[in-house]
Design brief:
By secondary structure, the chain is an alpha+beta fold. The chain has 13 helices and ten strands. The strands form two sheets. The chain has a five-stranded mixed β-sheet. Strands 3, 4, 5, 7 and 8 form a five-stranded antiparallel β-sheet that branches. The N and C termini lie far apart (44 Å). It holds the Pfam family C2_SYDE. InterPro entries: C2_dom (IPR000008), C2_domain_sf (IPR035892), Rho-GAP_regulator (IPR052118), Rho_GTPase_activation_prot (IPR008936), RhoGAP_dom (IPR000198), SYDE1/2_C2 (IPR057459). Keywords: GTPase activation. One of its GO terms (molecular function) is GTPase activator activity.
């Protein structure tokens, strides 16, 4: 089985001290075994998947417990689980200590882009040696999950053991619904300009966007898989609630939010849940058209056409957009360390920045790949150190 690419999946030694959980003192996790269905990936179907399309959207994964993970060498071990999609690391659990059964009880929200297989890789953590892959299993997504239908799966691991997980897949029409929030003074799901007026921060961008971008640039530019890896859904919910309560008071320092991937996840959630995409419904088709009429013989003219469309955005959208494009270019400038060049960042942000609400266009899902192409092109032509420097922080 191929190991995940792009970076060491293990927690760092410094992080391990904070993340390690004294598993033996915890109550056993209650698992409704009768609701789980056994699963083992069919290798013949994996071959078939290489010739078919994958899934787009959002996959929520709740890793509950690994059982029967016995070792003949030691009685107690430290294990953690890495989640990979099509061999790319997407998330990792905390370290748990145990002998046979390990209760992780952690959830993650993972973006899918033409994704075919999700793998679960269980490693033995050791402070002195390279972390060793002990158990693994996978699920072939297109033939197994259905949008909106939660599945409880008992995955048969190799060489032994069972991993209990719950999966909930949401296709783009659901994960990018862009429904306005009905909560009073909401932050997530509220209009961009409404938030900026309410916060009165002196910035023409939401405090959440400004603070998250600033913190990533302070300590996350060289983090492998920044914006691709996911933080804990539970910790993400806590940070969302803190921003909803008082965005001005939120402290994103490592002492308060140790996992930078929680911060990046909240930023992507905010952009995904805007009632209207940052690039607006009105300019959506214009951007797609400008992309389609690019002339190889006139790259400068093609770039000017695309950038001139951005000048039609409302002021708040322009400034927020410019802040994000500058930021993503800075992230890409460190791709030798973080493994996140422009192509990867466009995959992470294209749909959340461009995909309109389903009701605003006949079939926006047909343009899903184009969202990525548009953002990739914008990042390629964006002069973040030059003419657009007025948008820097």
């Amino acid at each position: 089985m191929p190991l995940p690419k792009h970076g060491d999946p293990s927690p760092s030694r410094s992080a391990s001290g904070r993340l390690r959980d004294l598993h033996l003192t915890r109550k056993p996790l209650h698992i409704p075994y009768s609701e789980f269905e056994p699963y083992k990936a069919d290798m013949r179907k994996r071959v078939e998947l290489t010739r078919s399309g994958g899934l787009d959207g959002l996959l929520s994964i709740h890793i509950m417990s690994g059982q029967g993970l016995k070792s003949s060498k030691t009685s107690l071990r430290d294990l953690y689980c890495v989640v990979a999609v099509d061999s790319l690391n997407k998330a990792r659990t905390m370290i748990r200590t145990g002998a046979i059964n390990f209760d992780w009880d952690e959830a993650f929200d993972i973006d899918l882009e033409d994704s075919k297989e999700v793998s679960f890789l269980i490693y033995h953590w050791d402070p002195n040696y390279k972390h060793r892959l002990c158990f693994h299993g996978s699920i072939l997504l297109p033939s197994y999950v259905q949008s909106g239908h939660k599945r409880y799966v008992a995955i048969k691991l190799e060489p032994k053991g069972i991993l209990f997980v719950a999966l909930l897949y949401k296709e783009p029409a659901i994960s990018l619904q862009r429904l306005p929030s009905i909560k009073k003074n909401a932050l997530f799901g509220a209009e961009l300009e409404t938030i900026i007026l309410r916060e009165s921060s002196g910035l023409n961008v939401p405090l959440l966007v400004h603070k998250c971008v600033l913190e990533v640039e302070r300590r996350g530019l060289e983090t492998v898989g920044i914006y691709r890896l996911c933080g804990s859904a539970r910790r993400k919910t806590m940070l969302r609630e803190a921003f909803e309560t008082n965005a001005q008071a939120v402290d994103l320092s490592p002492e308060n939010v140790s996992d930078i991937h929680v911060i990046t996840g909240v930023l992507k959630d905010y952009l995904r849940e805007l009632p209207e995409p940052l690039f607006t419904n009105a300019l959506y088709q214009m951007l797609l058209d400008a992309l389609s009429v690019r002339l190889p013989c006139d790259p400068e003219g093609s770039a000017k056409l695309m950038l001139s469309i951005l000048e039609c955005l409302p002021s708040a959208n322009q400034d927020t957009m410019a802040l994000l494009l500058n930021h993503l270019r800075r992230v890409a400038a460190h791709s030798d360390k973080n493994k996140m060049p422009i192509d990867n960042l466009a995959i992470c942000f294209g749909p959340v920045l461009l995909c309109p609400a389903p009701s605003s266009t006949p079939d926006p899902l047909l343009d899903f790949r184009k969202h990525i192409e548009v953002l990739r092109y914008l990042l390629e032509i964006w002069d973040y150190e030059g003419s657009n420097s007025k948008y820097t922080m």
